[in-house]
């Protein structure tokens, strides 16, 4: 066993040294030195003369790998290329040297794809790029272009940071809790905890009675322990009193350094760069430290990947989304294209590969969890169908609801939204917005937007993964679909799809309920393998779009019937389209399923005067979840002339555009004994179960009766999960060792604990503190490890 571990460490040593980018002779010498040291270590282990503490330190050092990307600071002075070639790092280095380029690094975990850097002084760049792409072994060369990604904070009053010294208050709520102590409610000494109504509505902050039902989970000692969450944002202040205990260096990096990646995600210390720290606080603020508030998963490990500092590139995004994906469980992305109602953008090719790779290889093959903010462009009539990150099947798009369950004024609607969390509506309401720690010595009580909604969802998912770490990325999405609740039955637009799921373009499947999700996750059976069925739709001739008119494309689908990828139970549905338009914002695109469910894939946008149309654009819906896909699908493209006033369309124009191509992409599973039911709906999917419907509701009704939605709402409200309803299967018993290290019943240190312990070594600079760290590690090893 020891020899096997040394072999792993040696391989990590080689890869780490090679990635440093030193000249070849020094690299080989450094590798040889490391291997000689490992040999000495193995001999010492055999004789028992090697200190266990030194071995542990060595293991930790070798676990850390250097990952380098271009950093936005160099894009003005240099040209960066992503190159896909055979032969590995050595071949990439040779290619760089022979063509006068500088080798930077592999792009994240994308195999065979590397970043090379060139100065901007080269004359005939087009010829150079063509010559580079024809080198034997090179598959393609892609010049990297910078683009802007916006943090999902709506326009509101400027955040006011309250100094910690003035935060403590003798709250009426605290006194009420002291008078009404119960084993059902935990209390915390964090001064702003009573204001966190979204987690536990109490006292003066209980005007709505709405919360995310976290308390029953905490009462079962489920706090995110062992789960690693990383915030991809503008950095993370790991010195913050509420975050430093849970900070995880292995889930952190700075991708914006001038000369490659730095392991230090510390942001610029100003209000503008506090976004990532606030997102991290929502997830993992320390509990009972008499400071600020409490994180949803207050024992989870939290990291930060610094990306959003100026413009970014496709390779930078791809690197961030695959960074240490064997170690990080959940990535939180509270950003995306501009929410101006005019931009249409999403993940570019490398980032698309990174998302797919993360779900295939991340978390040991169970798949990384990507939580994305759905967007804040509601005031500008934006639609998240124009956001390619929301349209990805690999992301979990999260919207926001107010303290009364209504949609927020800033939220965007589209059928790619999976669920919502509570964030409050705006400043001046009866309740504060999200209360969270911030950079430096301060807290805020008004962190708004889907920026705050996505980390809340990630915190809930951290609780879910603690209970059942075997869940795959698709299991998590099924849990959301099965358990999300209707927060406001009177909000127009609720629909019951043909499989019995309630869906809404603003809410997705509904509001997340932490207690219900954890209860269901504890005994969740992994879903069947995903299948994919693509169908290119023959149009014969271009479908011309008349001004103010529409085009319908009928798609008769067999869902790959009789083939190995046959699907009879849907998950995601995508439509890839090429549509020419004289005014893109005047267009709407909808899709009707064989079961009658209508998804508004893209709505009109009054600020989008682009003439580019939709070029190879992929739209997505989750509203057909669980439905049978065989039958007639109908895609409708409509021109709403006059929506975008700045388009200045003439009255005599003869065409508004044309539908050039359509591809239907179905994702789902196959259940051998599933029967197709038509006619009236038989049951509703709610709280993880099928409930017989007491009304006659036909599948093809555009909207179900309001009393049916009200019935579902009342049932979900009345059957709220409580502490005793959560039955957790036996988990390995852990015991504490010195240095906050846990050891299982077999006397083994879990790998994550071993890796994260290195933070305490890295952060200490003086010889005295380093000696103390080694001594602490030695005590840990001798106390509980072989």
From TrEMBL:
What's this protein's name? P/Homo B domain-containing protein
InterPro entries xrefs: Galactose-bd-like_sf, Kexin/furin, P_dom, Peptidase_S8/S53_dom, Peptidase_S8/S53_dom_sf, Peptidase_S8_Asp-AS, Peptidase_S8_His-AS, Peptidase_S8_Ser-AS
Q: Which lineage is the organism of this entry classified under, starting from the top rank?
A: Eukaryota, Metazoa, Chordata, Craniata, Vertebrata
P/Homo B domain mapped to chain residues: 527-672
Instruction: Please list the residues that make up the active site.
Output: 233 (charge relay system), 275 (charge relay system), 451 (charge relay system)
| Region of interest (Disordered), ranges | 763-786
The record's annotation in PROSITE patterns points to:
P_HOMO_B, SUBTILASE, SUBTILASE_ASP, SUBTILASE_HIS, SUBTILASE_SER
Top-level lineage group? Eukaryota
**Entry GO terms, CC:** Golgi membrane; trans-Golgi network
The record's keywords, sorted A to Z, are: Cleavage on pair of basic residues, Disulfide bond, Glycoprotein, Hydrolase, Protease, Serine protease, Signal, Zymogen
What is an annotated GO biological process for this record, any one?
protein processing
Q: Does the keyword Zinc apply?
A: no
Q: Where is the composition biased (Basic and acidic residues)?
A: 773-786
Provenance organism: Anabas testudineus (Climbing perch)
The entry assigns this protein to a family as follows: Belongs to the peptidase S8 family. Furin subfamily.
Q: Which CDD domains match?
A: Peptidases_S8_Protein_convertases_Kexins_Furin-like
Molecular function per GO: serine-type endopeptidase activity
